[in-house]
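Sequence dictates fold. Below is an illustrative record:

_____
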Amino acid sequence: MYICVECRREMRCSKNGVGADFGNHHVYPGDVFECPECGQKILAASHSIYDAEYKTQDSYIKIRERNNV
């Protein structure tokens, strides 16, 4: 369960099969959760995988490097 800190509401899953792409085929597969009140979104992921062809997820989010935030 994920709770929105601002609204104190339970977030709901809005999309499955989204990968956080850290480059070099380093992907954290997860699901997008969204707050029904304010619309804040998170990607809930737990472990990394090697995704050689970027075909294991429905979509990918390219993660920015820390110094480019």
User: Anything to note?
Assistant: The chain has a mean pLDDT of 95. The chain is about 0% helix and 45% strand. The chain has one domain: 12-61. The longest strand covers residues 12-21.
